[in-house]
Amino acid sequence: MKDAGLSLWSLVWHVGGFFCHQLPDRSPQFMGVVFPLCYRCTGLYVSFLVAFVYILASGGCRRRLPDLRWALPMSMGTLPFFVDGWANVLGLWASVGWVRALTGMGVGLVLPQLLVPLLQRPDADTADAMKPTVSTPLTLLPPVAASVALLWLAAHPVRLWIFQSLAVAVSFVPALFLVLFVVAVWRHNARSCRGLHIAPGEVRC
């Protein structure tokens, strides 16, 4: 049983290494165990998972993009990620862990709101008949609160099994994102080809 646990933890570390630098001094730690993702990536993937699950639980994936009046302000939540990230890379300042986590959370909360509408089939209902992923800013309050709670738990897990369980769940979120992204691109391509009366397999450069 112990060997199986070590093998799973090793797998989690290898998976996390594909998407994160995994620097120990920039990652949550508990009882000498280092989280397999840095604070920024943890914030990003925790909030992505929370936002995606919330969309499913609050009406399913048959959604359209938010209205422009909400989409633009919501997208501004991604700016701290890039500003703080580049500032740290250029040595302008060194952010503490919770700041890194919150900047990642901003991106993670926004991505599902824009990605889920792209998952619709080419023959889906008209956009006007679908519920938007974000109808008002208050729509984001539950996933924001849940994301903050889980990030706090990652930094203050109390028990090692909580810390490791979060690590296992969060480390595989990038794979979920990649699957959703590929499906969205494929369906968008199929939708475009259908509008041009071209079979997707017949598209040529």
Element pattern in H and E: HEEHEHHHEHHH
- Count of helix runs: 8
Whole-number mean pLDDT:
86
Main β-sheet description: 2 strands, antiparallel
Q: How many domains, as an integer?
A: 1
TL;DR of this structure?
The termini are far apart. The chain contains eight helices and four strands, in the order H-E-E-H-E-H-H-H-E-H-H-H.
Structure notes:
There is one protein chain. With 205 residues, the protein is mainly alpha-helical. It has one domain. The protein has 8 helices and 4 strands. It has helices spanning 2-17, 39-57, 68-75, 79-89, 97-115, 141-155, 160-171, 173-195; strands at residues 29-30, 33-34, 63-64, 131-132. It has a two-stranded antiparallel ribbon. A two-stranded parallel sheet has the order 3-4. A hairpin with a 2-residue loop joins strand 1 and strand 2 (33-34). It is globular and about 55 Å long. It starts with a helix and ends in a 10-residue tail after the last helix. The mean pLDDT is 86.
